[in-house]
Write a structure and sequence with these properties.
Blueprint: H1 2-7, H2 9-17, H3 24-40, H4 46-54
Amino acid sequence: MVATLENHWDGILGFWQFGGATNAAMEGFNNKVRTLLRQAYGYRDHEYMRLKILDLPSNKLQVVV
């Protein structure tokens, strides 16, 4: 356990130094983008795809399995 703590010490200190900030929000947004692109099966117009990605925070995506 000590070796694991020593290997990750910079990350642990960084978490507390920046007030418990994590990259969870960015990971969640990236997951939404990947889900959007997977459900869309590709867009022909890159500008439309960009607008759909920028509109993601206001949409509620449902993953259908």
